[in-house]
């Protein structure tokens, strides 16, 4: 995976050689680079430094989501009390598609969508970690701790670490800045690997206004103006969580993965008119 650590940390090649080699980059060096990349402001604890740097390094040197899940479980920094790990990406139909796992995994039942009542779906909806005791493979109850996988500010999936019942979620020991850095690191790494949910293809070429609700069309118009979810929510007198859910449904209907792609495709299909920002 040549260059993935540089991609994550913002390091670049000079004269055919990386400015900092993989083995030479300490957790502190990786962490400092991520601070710049993700615009982190404020104090950071040594735990933040160690965990974020360690996860970034594992991402950079893992070839598959299954390999990363295995390394997370066995990691002394991340994997205390861990009995499993899994990664899920959101499909165009709003389901959570497993793209790699090791050890125990959550039992999601019949509803594997991002609107289900489980910590994975709540993590997508709220864009923040959720954890709770639930059934995992093998029939036992365990702590399912979830963190969003982000592409910019948009959710594209969920990373899960399964811990023994009574254990503490890793996210509970980290600052919001550290969690956001991990969420974006996962997203950059997934993109660099080319990992996609099953069935991902541009099948929604003929999307029409009938495929979107009036609320979704209004959200889409505001997205095209470059407005944030918080701004749209304030104007529409809705919660920011509701707007996030609507954006995911819009992506699904249009077969896209980002706000820019959604706006561009909506304009091309005549779903919205070009607006002046």
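Sequence proposed for the structure above (277 residues):
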């Amino acid at each position: 995976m040549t260059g993935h650590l540089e991609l994550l940390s913002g390091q670049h090649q000079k004269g055919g050689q990386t400015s900092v080699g993989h083995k030479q980059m300490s957790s502190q060096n990786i962490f400092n680079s991520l601070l710049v990349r993700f615009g982190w402001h404020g104090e950071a604890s040594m735990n933040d430094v160690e965990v974020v740097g360690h996860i970034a390094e594992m991402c950079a040197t893992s070839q598959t989501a299954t390999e990363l899940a295995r390394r997370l479980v066995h990691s002394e920094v991340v994997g205390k009390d861990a009995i499993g790990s899994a990664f899920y990406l959101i499909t165009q139909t709003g389901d959570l598609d497993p793209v790699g796992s090791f050890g125990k995994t959550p039992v999601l039942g019949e509803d594997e969508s991002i609107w289900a009542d489980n910590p994975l779906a709540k993590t997508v909806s709220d864009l923040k970690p959720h954890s709770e005791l639930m059934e995992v493979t093998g029939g036992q109850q365990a702590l399912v701790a979830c963190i969003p996988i982000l592409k910019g500010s948009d959710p594209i999936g969920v990373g899960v670490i399964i811990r023994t019942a009574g254990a503490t979620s890793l996210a509970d020991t980290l600052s919001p800045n550290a969690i956001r850095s991990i969420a974006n690191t996962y997203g950059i790494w997934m993109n660099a690997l080319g990992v996609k949910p099953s069935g991902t293809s541009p099948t929604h070429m003929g999307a029409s206004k009938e495929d979107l609700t009036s609320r979704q069309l209004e959200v889409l118009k505001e997205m095209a103006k470059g407005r944030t979810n918080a701004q749209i929510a304030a104007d529409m007198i809705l919660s920011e969580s509701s707007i996030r859910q609507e954006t995911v449904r819009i992506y699904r209907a249009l077969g896209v993965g980002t706000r820019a792609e959604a706006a561009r495709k909506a304009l091309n299909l005549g779903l919205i008119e070009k607006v002046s920002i």
